[in-house]
Design brief:
single chain; 20 helices; about 375 residues; mainly alpha
Length: about 375
């Protein structure tokens, strides 16, 4: 479907009616604390809901306990296999392209700075990594899985931020529209799907069209479970390219919050990387994946590794040739990828299970200013807008 300034503007006026109503009722009845306490015991799909759970929350959890009826499970299995084959590369793209892209949208960066949870810098990355790993498990949508409860909680988390900002008159709805509106939710979906595929292509990763389409499809399913309007979401990769290009041109730009969050991200991964010699690789990877203009907006430092990182596609190409020619090599690289992802997630979570609780208040100093406007190898759709 064609996306225009008018159609994008229309998406800024709506949030998530179902989740917003649930959160409003919980706050009105003073039941948020009780909900958060009891929901710590709800971590797997199909487990009995605890006694004493507020009725409105119980009904919401029952209504949202299943994936959309239109899900193509064959496509979801292709997406899972795509993730297994590319887990390290996908984690790299999420960490060093998708998250910085969020910080490039000033009003989104301010939203991310609004919660007390970001005092723990790795919380956002840990939640994102854990959420993605849960999604790509074989039993992600079956009883006993952790993905569905995580999606239900994230949806309420978004609704609670909308509730706080509007109730406390801390958001300029006339200029910015609804906080965490449909346009921003779809934009986030594009950051974690289309932008990941773009980054894999930039890294020289060979992907089939079938695999790329399946990965995008999986995030469409995620979007539906997070309250994204399915009449507006991009269905094809060409649609995704058009939406992402227009969204970024409408909103991306520099901000203090974006630079601060990027600094936190760099510091976090420099702690994860052993020693100090390779610390500059973190900044170099971000700069390589988002480009110099965006990296400068985010104040990503230039390092001696900026040129070295450009050789990454050649190195990854050698590893892929080993994988293609040797079943044993493919198995070893897949296992290495799995272990690397697990170790990275373990470092980010610091051994904790991440809980997606409804914040009972936001930071007091929060403020928002104006916005700044095995088939053939897959290649990204061409840019739809030239500048």
């Amino acid at each position: 479907m064609p996306y225009t300034e008018a159609s994008m503007n229309a998406l800024r006026g709506s949030g998530d009616e179902l989740a917003d109503a649930v959160v409003a009722t919980l706050f009105e009845r003073g039941e948020v604390g009780k909900f958060n306490t009891l929901m710590r015991y709800v971590s797997t799909a199909g487990s009995p809901l605890p006694e004493g759970l507020p009725d409105v929350a119980r009904e919401y959890l029952q209504v949202t306990a299943a994936p959309p009826s239109w899900v193509d499970w064959g496509e979801m299995e292709k997406a899972r296999l795509f993730f297994i084959d590319n887990s390290v590369h996908i984690s790299t793209a999420l960490s060093f392209a998708s998250m910085p892209a969020c910080y490039l949208v000033p009003h989104v960066a301010k939203l991310l700075s609004a919660t007390h949870g970001l005092n723990y810098p790795s919380k956002r990355m840990a939640e994102t990594g854990q959420f993605t790993v849960h999604l790509m498990q074989p039993d992600a949508f079956e009883a006993g899985s952790r993905f569905i409860p995580a999606a239900q909680k994230v949806r309420l988390l978004h609704a609670s931020i909308r509730h706080h900002l509007v109730r406390e008159d801390r958001w300029d709805t006339g200029t910015l529209g609804t906080p965490i509106c449909q346009e921003d939710m779809i934009g986030g979906q594009m950051f974690f799907s289309m932008l990941v595929l773009d980054s894999l292509h930039r890294l020289g990763i060979h992907m089939s069209t079938e695999g790329a389409e399946a990965y995008h499809y999986a995030w469409r399913v995620v979007g539906a479970m997070l309250g994204v309007d399915q009449d507006a979401v991009p269905v094809t990769l060409d649609d995704a390219r058009q939406f992402l290009d227009l969204y970024m041109l409408r909103h991306m730009g520099p901000s203090e919050e974006g630079a601060h969050l990027t600094r936190q991200l760099i510091d976090l991964y420099e702690e994860v990387v052993p020693g100090t010699f390779f610390d500059p690789v973190v900044s170099a990877l971000i700069r390589y994946l988002v480009g110099d203009t965006c990296a400068d907006w985010l104040r990503v430092p230039r390092t001696r590794w900026d040129t070295v990182v450009k050789a990454a596609p050649a190195l990854l190409g050698v590893l892929e040739s080993i994988e293609d020619r040797s079943p044993l090599g493919a198995w070893a690289l897949d296992r290495l990828g799995h272990l690397t992802t697990v170790l990275e997630l373990s470092s980010l979570t610091r051994g904790r299970v991440m809980h997606y609780a409804i914040p009972e208040q936001l930071k007091k100093d929060f403020g928002v200013g104006g916005t700044v406007p095995p088939n053939r190898r897959w290649t990204p759709p061409a840019p739809t807008v030239t500048v």
